[in-house]
Amino acid sequence: MRYIVIGAGAVGGTVGGRLAQAGREVVLVARGSHLTALGERGLRLRVPEGESTHRLPAVEGPGALGALRADDVLLLAVKTQDTVAALDAWADVPVAGGGTAGERLPLLCLQNGVEGPRLALRRFRRVYGVCVWLPCTFVEPGVVSAAGTPLTGILHLGRAQGGTDDTARRIAADLADAHFEAPVVPDVARWQYAKLLANLANALEAVSGPLQGETAEALFARVRAEGEAVLDAARIAYASPEEQRAARGDKVTLVPLDGAPRGGGSSWQSLVRGTGSIEADYLNGEIVLLGRLHGVPTPLNELLQRLAGTFARERRPAGSLPLADLVRMADEAGRARDRAAGEVRLP
Predict the structure, then answer these.
(1) Quick one: which of 335, 283, 275, 327 has its CA closest to 306?
(2) Residue 32 three-state SS
(3) Which of 315, 317, 289 has its CA nearest to residue 302?
(4) How far, in Å, CA of 209 to CA of 26, rounded?
(5) Residue 230 and residue 55: Cα distance in Å, rounded?
(6) Which residue from 262, 19, 275 is spatially nearest to 138, judged by alpha carbons?
(7) DSSP per position, 50-79
């Protein structure tokens, strides 16, 4: 199989680099200065064992590859807000022997949240969800780092519509050779929803800095409680914290890497890079959506979704909102919700 990594940033670059280390054939898809650096100097991957450089084919899109191969696997690792554009670019690409990528090739969504596979199923027949537990960082154009050891990450995967198949198992075997654990599960969405609850902290971290101390932890507990209430109301199953801890154990332990500081999660990194967009609409925004559909108020997630979007559009510095100010805003949002609830009168 040949792996085409669509979005070779922190996650995509790490997975692509590790697969290349394991002797698998890999193509990286990137843009801008990152693509230039990949073409000129290769992909530099920093991991606890040291730094390695991988001279891999790097392209901006499918045009440079011509007809795709029947054994190609597409790894979609762009942020969710960039998913539709990526699907539009790749779904109709012809595959040698007939048909298109959307008709014939497997596509794995290595993304936060749950919206990616739903979007992909509109254009691709063979879609797989992946719950990504992979601490990694885009350091600079051409350079990514992953500080986990002895495993680089854990990637639960399965068919987006439920179930497993031989393709998932073959891909999992390749990932296992590349320093990942890749459990093939029939209910991958259950793991993705569990990860979604944890990712509700991404916007909090992005606007007010790392979750350190009792105040930050207490605020996140309130944000997460909203998410759990929403998923329970929607009758959406998710893996428990205990089940997640049992699955992860001490398999991915972070170690300091020289020249590759880990400043924060994916949303934090989006602000630091000044991309102009952030994935909060598909993390906190997913909880807001479900809350509105099922009559559960979500004022704290609404607040974080709005703030994260403003920070991204206005390119404000990551972590620049004092935590005390965010707590005050959260308390005001909660009181406003209570007032609105008190104004509701039954006929």
Answers:
(1) 283
(2) helix
(3) 289
(4) 35
(5) 46
(6) 262
(7) EEEEE---EESSGGGG-SBPTTEEEEE-S-
Burial of residue 328, with CB atoms counted within 10 A of its CB: 0-12 exposed, 13-18 middle, 19 or more buried: exposed
Asked if residues 342 and 336 have their Cβ atoms less than 8 Å apart, the reply is no
Phi, psi values for residue 193, rounded to 5°: -70, -35
Strands 148-150 and 252-254: antiparallel
Distance CA 230, CA 185 (A): 24
Torsions phi, psi of 98, nearest 5? 115, 155
- Which amino acid type is present at position 224? R
DSSP assignment letter at 94: B
The percent of the chain in helix, strand and coil, each rounded to the nearest 5, is 50, 20, 35
Token pair recorded at residue 262 = 């880990």
Tell me which residue of 18, 205, 95 sits closest to 107, measured CA to CA. 95
Tell me the per-residue pLDDT of 181-193, one tens digit each, with 9 for 90 and over: 999 999 999 999 9
Cα–Cα distance list, 283 to 54, 153, 154, 162, 294 (Å) = 33, 21, 20, 21, 17
Query: CA 59, CA 153: separation in Å to the nearest integer?
Result: 26
For residues 130, 136, 137, 140, the Cα torsion angle rounded to the nearest 10 degrees is -90
| pLDDT tens per residue across span 192-240 | 999 999 999 999 999 999 999 999 999 999 999 999 999 999 999 999 9
- Asked if residues 310 and 278 have their Cβ atoms less than 8 Å apart, the reply is no
Position 261 scores a pLDDT of 58
Tokens 């597409």 belong to 74
- What is the distance in angstroms between the CA of the first residue and the CA of the last residue of the chain? 63
Q: H or E element: which one contains 266? A: helix 266-273
